[in-house]
Design a protein that fits this description.
The protein is an alpha/beta fold. It has 16 helices and 16 strands.
Length: about 525
């Protein structure tokens, strides 16, 4: 049966016009409907990647060589940073939302013996308020309305403080992207994650030359990012002795995804138009593709620290990059040789050895040169992996793909059938998790950028149920950027230490030593 054809036929003329205006192919929209109705295809885990079996531990005697490789790449201008920065900060402050009774209870100096977790969180927030980098801005915006913040704190009026922190009457933090919030106190002013990424990139460049960064942001917040860059640019370039080249992009309308209503029909608005939702960070593979870079460093927006604590991040970015460059050099040399001498048995043997020993790939020993080139000629990424410590995030696993080939993949818990005891047991024995700190080699052996969309596993969508306008709807996220979006890449996992990973998932993470001056 032609399910895609049937799904396309279900679109009206107005639907097709709407999809065309968004540059969405009807067949692509139809495939989404088929996925939504058929359900998610769960990833089949073979075993977790562990040290010595899928996770590499770099030996200290290799560090000098890897650092030199990194230095050569910096000197030749090969590196670019790519930071997904559109994430909203609303969840970061979820622990500050409480009902009136809890807020009233916090007015008492001492908590009751049976105080709830919600109350204890609020009390901690109030007690540590001056330790947050946003305190001066909060004090200023409240003063503009005639409120003395120190007096408000003495009165323990948490409701007023939280309102001015999160709502439009004050700093409006609950409606801003996380990248624009004051994270760290510094001599040049409170620094946001956006500013810290600029600073780290400059330090990584050895305080010299052009520093190139690309941020993906939401359309509505793009002017705010540009304004913040304008405000900080001269100060940062003078401090670090470099010149920044900062570019931005937004998720394309063509990456929106359909949803299903309770009747299993495409979700529509009150005017009968198809409702398209953001496709998740997997949509950013197109932004990464258009960057057409060479060596691209990918890091989450909230994994930043003040300059005094940047040492581990800088060290391990250099080492991960150096390792990728070493492997890529071999990969490109073998591809060149295989193209020039496809019938040479020695070259064929070297290619097979590289795939098995260096990339730990499964290889069919009877493959001809064309098949070996197809397997070898792919983008390469080196992903830092942190030993498990209870932090949220996906993890590294050996996965058998649809063709039966064993590959290393970053897998989210939402992609796994945890009702299956065998799969749940594999998940439970994972030793590392993904901090989203990776180095990507996205050009081929001739120096041409790969078309990264060729290497996406289109089946690796995530399907969930959400409430929208009072009804339960079935929604679809595109294959995640570092999950299904890079499923066809060569992937290497390298263990990095916990001190190189300092995310800010809740406001209280800003109180950790790594985020304090």
């Amino acid at each position: 049966m032609n399910f895609l054809g049937d799904a396309v036929m279900n679109f009206s003329g107005d639907d097709l016009q709407q999809l065309q205006a968004l540059n969405i192919e009807p067949s692509k929209a139809a495939r989404q409907l088929v996925c939504l109705r058929g359900g998610q295809v769960d990833v089949k885990l073979e075993r977790p990647c562990v040290a010595g079996d899928g996770i590499i531990q770099l030996q200290t005697d290799s560090h000098d060589y890897l650092n030199k490789s990194f230095g050569a790449a910096i000197a030749s201008g090969r590196l670019h940073r790519f930071i997904p920065a559109s994430g909203a900060a609303s969840r970061m402050f979820s622990q500050l939302h409480a009902d009136a009774a809890v807020l009233k209870s916090c007015r008492n100096v001492q908590p009751k013996p049976q105080a709830s977790t919600a109350e204890l969180n609020l009390r901690r927030f109030l007690d540590k308020l001056t330790s947050f980098a946003f305190y001066p801005d909060l004090e200023k915006t409240m003063a503009e309305d005639g409120h003395d913040l120190q007096q408000v704190v003495a009165e323990r009026n948490l409701a007023l403080i939280i309102s001015y922190l999160l709502e439009p009457c004050g700093l409006c933090y609950s409606r801003l992207p996380k990248g624009l919030l004051a994270f760290h106190a510094a001599v040049d002013g409170a620094r946001t994650p956006f500013v810290e990424h600029l600073a780290e990139a400059a330090l990584l460049n050895d305080l010299d030359g052009v520093v190139a960064l690309h941020f993906t942001v939401s359309e509505e917040h793009l002017p705010l990012f540009k304004a913040q860059f304008t405000a900080w640019r001269n100060c940062l370039e003078e401090t670090y002795g470099c010149r920044f080249e900062v570019t931005y992009s937004t998720q394309k309308p063509s990456t929106g995804t359909l949803a299903l209503d309770v009747a299993g029909l495409p979700l529509r608005d009150v005017k009968g138009k198809l409702v398209l939702r953001p496709g998740g960070h997997g949509a950013l593979i197109e932004n990464l593709n258009e960057l057409a870079g060479d060596i691209i460093l990918v890091r989450n927006i909230d994994n930043v620290v003040p300059d005094a604590h940047k040492g581990a991040n800088l060290d391990w970015t250099r080492l991960l990059t150096g390792y990728l460059l070493a492997v890529q050099e071999e990969q490109h040399a073998l591809l060149k040789a295989l193209h020039n001498q496809p019938d040479d048995p020695l070259i064929r043997e070297l290619v097979i050895g590289f795939l098995i020993d260096r990339l730990q790939a499964e290889v069919c020993l009877t493959d001809d040169s064309k098949a070996l080139i197809e397997q070898l000629d792919r983008p390469l990424r080196v992903c830092g992996m942190v030993p498990n410590s209870g932090e949220p995030g996906g993890g590294p696993f050996w996965v058998r793909n649809a063709k039966g080939r064993l590959t290393r993949q970053i897998v989210e818990a939402a992609q796994i059938d945890r009702e299956n005891p065998e799969q749940a047991d594999i998940l439970a024995h994972a030793t590392h998790f993904n901090p989203v700190d990776m180095v990507c080699g996205v050009s081929d052996w001739c120096g041409r950028p790969y078309d990264l969309t060729r290497f996406v596993d289109e089946e690796a969508v995530i399907i969930t149920s959400k409430m929208q306008d009072g009804q339960e709807v079935r929604v679809l996220e595109l294959p995640g950027l570092w999950n299904g979006g890079m499923a066809g890449w060569h992937t290497l996992f390298v263990e990095i230490p916990p001190e190189a990973f300092n995310p800010v998932k809740t406001v209280f993470d800003l109180l950790r030593p790594a985020h304090q001056p």
